[in-house]
Amino acid sequence: MNKVIKFGEEVEGYDILVLNEREIRAAAGILFLMMFISIMVVILKGDFLMLKYAVTIFLTDIIIRVFVNPKFSPTLIIGRLIVRNQVPEYVGAAQKKIAWIIGVILATIMFILLVVANTYSPITGIICFICIIFLFFETAFGICLGCKFYNLFNKEKAQYCPGEVCDVKSKQEIQKTSMLQILIVFTFIAYIFITVSIFNVQLSEQPYDLFGIENSTHSK
Fold first, then answer.
1. What's the whole-model pTM score?
2. Considering just the CA atoms, what is the radius of gyration of the chain in Å?
3. Closest to 32 (Cα-Cα) out of 59, 58, 53
4. Ranges of each domain in the chain
């Protein structure tokens, strides 16, 4: 039973239980895409059916991770298959558990309000936004926002964080950002605002069918 109900895996050379960050990021990408599409369907069509399925899937998957074993999480299994040819990047399991417990709490509230009670409100909207942000940061940047809470509840600091961010060390030259690069970013943002203001009329116009394919289809 201990081999089934377990959080994290034993890997030679690591004195704590760890997880593979690469498959976690892949799984986060899968969940992010599912939640993002579901939310867009709600926004564009007002149809909550897909979001209800997505919330149910999300809750079930993350409950398996926390209360059974991450090895049996469907999205983590799919993630493992996707990144199976990549060298594993091991991270401490303890901080991931805290992050996923937060996920369980948020998903449970969403499930009760949206699926069981069949309601929507600013509460469900805010929770959806938080989940999307957490998933996006995990899959895009490898930053576990939920893991940040680990040090608040534990005296021992987190070990083996993604990208070794737990370890205090000086930045390498390639990681440093110059004032010129910062200036380029702000200039680019200013450029976008100026472009939008100049071409606002053109950008607001509905594009027309260049080859007239849609009109010819309707005429038939």
1. 0.81
2. 22
3. 58
4. 18-168
